[in-house]
Design goal:
471 residues, mainly alpha, three-stranded antiparallel β-sheet, 15 helices, 5 strands, 6% strand, globular
């Protein structure tokens, strides 16, 4: 553990970032300095344990005491303490129009004390969000790989969104009446409501003041990215669309394999030729996962580019037919990767009620089944030209998509389909299949994917229910 003894440089560095909190008018106990103060956890410094920090400080204090005693006896000048202590206080630092905020929190990311966010001395004003995006896309990846920086700036953006919409709400004339109601609430009333929420019994509240408070909280937090009420706001928008144009035609979930994508590795700085990806140029699966985990901005860039391409070609490009409307939401999985849920309204006359009446006609049923069997294939023999063993050395997602301009595209396309199906689409039971059946005994657990399924010899449509079963 190397520590610089250049105290003068460290003092100048601290002075250029934030005011010295030890000089403000607040109660500070200067007689005792905690060796392990409470602060924001820097996950990039977890290799240095708190015991190492405490041991180093004790050694430096012991060395200073010995050196001070020796030099006092010799009549020499005693230099300052070489241990650099982080100033602390009980007042939150202002995060608005404060270019020194991030400079002081992350001195290793801004080693020269310049390049601050919201630095109004610049001739061109740069938005906070846009500046953060720029920092995360830098080639040296120091901001992208610093997880604490990402969480801190996200928290700042969330709080700013909440404060902005709260300010808009309080400026409305109707809020004056609500303000009078909220002023009558005591901390005990709010604590009681929070206790009921934590117990899960907060279903019906008789105190209208709490209901008024919760209503305003829902309105404000509905505009905050990542909040629970933002999902409620999205559900309201979906209900409005259903009320206006009917039920959606398609529900689509797109879950890209970022760990196996050469595009993600390319965005993360790996030297790859995307026009000709060679299997031997790709690292092992574990190494790819490490690269993806340490480059979150590259992963989100890949997801954003892929979703834009899918929406442009699949939805707006007419592959699914004319689209009346679509709405989607991005969610994260347990491991942090993103996936997209999409509702699509097709612009045709076959809504549920007329379609249920039309399937009573036998001729229409036969034509509908012919159409479905033409676009939905469940027999791999239709794509096999010859029996070839599946090579499992490389995941199919790592291999490039066949280029449509090639003369042998049809053959490569069929081969690609067989490879993907045999390696990825053959169902194997896992813990995910039974995650909703954990409380049941083993003999009564059922796979939530409904596997294995009964084989159907021929496709049919149930006239009474409208259910379509494919062979």
């Amino acid at each position: 553990m190397q520590v610089s003894t250049n105290v003068e440089a460290s003092e100048n560095e601290r002075a250029s970032y934030i005011p010295n909190l030890l000089n403000v008018s607040e109660s500070n106990n200067t007689a005792a300095v905690p060796l392990i103060p409470s602060a924001v956890l820097d996950v990039n410094g977890i290799n240095i344990s708190s015991d190492d920090v405490a041991e180093h400080l004790l050694e430096r204090m012991k060395a200073q005491t010995t050196d001070k005693t020796r030099k006092t006896d010799l009549g020499e000048h005693v230099p300052g303490d070489p241990v650099y202590m982080i100033p602390r206080g009980n007042k939150p630092v202002n995060e608005y129009s404060n270019p020194n905020l991030l400079l002081g929190i992350f001195p290793t990311l801004f080693p020269y004390g310049c390049g601050a966010v919201e630095d109004f001395s610049r001739p061109v004003k740069i938005d906070f969000r846009e500046h953060v995006r720029y920092l995360l896309s830098l080639g040296d990846c120091r901001f992208e790989e610093h997880y604490s920086f990402i969480f801190v700036v996200l928290n700042i953006l969330q709080r700013r969104a909440a404060c902005f919409h709260a300010h808009l709400m309080t400026s409305r004339p109707y809020f004056q009446q609500s303000a009078e109601i909220l002023e009558s609430l005591s901390s005990a009333d709010i604590a009681k409501a929070l206790l009921n929420i934590s117990k899960g019994t907060y279903s019906k509240v008789t105190d209208q003041r709490i209901n008024t408070l919760m209503k305003h909280i829902r309105v404000v937090s509905g505009h905050v990215m990542g909040s629970a009420h933002s999902r409620s706001t999205l559900r309201t928008k979906i209900h409005s669309l259903c009320f206006n144009i009917g039920l959606p035609s398609l529900f689509v979930t797109i879950n890209p394999a970022d760990i196996h994508s050469p595009v993600t590795l390319y965005f993360a700085g790996v030297d790859l030729n995307l026009d000709e990806v060679l299997p031997e140029a790709l690292s092992a699966s574990y190494e790819r996962a490490k690269i993806i985990a340490t480059h979150p901005a590259a992963t989100e860039k890949f997801f954003n580019c892929l979703m834009k391409s899918i929406l442009k070609s699949l939805v707006l490009g007419g592959v699914l037919g004319p689209v009346k409307a679509y709405v989607g939401t991005v969610e994260n999985q347990g491991r942090g990767s993103l996936h997209l849920h999409l509702l699509i309204w097709l612009n045709h006359e076959f809504t549920l009620t007329p379609l249920k009446e039309m399937i009573q006609n036998e001729d229409f049923r036969e034509k509908l089944l012919q159409y479905l069997e033409d676009i939905v294939k469940e027999d791999l023999d239709l794509f096999r030209e010859e029996i070839e063993p599946v090579e499992n050395e490389v995941a199919p997602a790592c291999l490039p998509t066949p280029n449509p301009v090639r003369d042998d595209f049809q053959r490569m396309f069929r081969k690609d389909i067989v490879r993907i199906v045999e390696t990825s689409n053959i169902h194997k039971h896992s813990a995910t299949c039974y995650k909703y059946s954990k409380a049941k005994p083993d003999d009564s657990k059922t796979c939530r994917m409904h596997m294995p399924r009964v084989l159907i010899k021929s496709s049919n449509i149930d006239v009474s229910t409208g259910q379509t079963t494919m062979r």
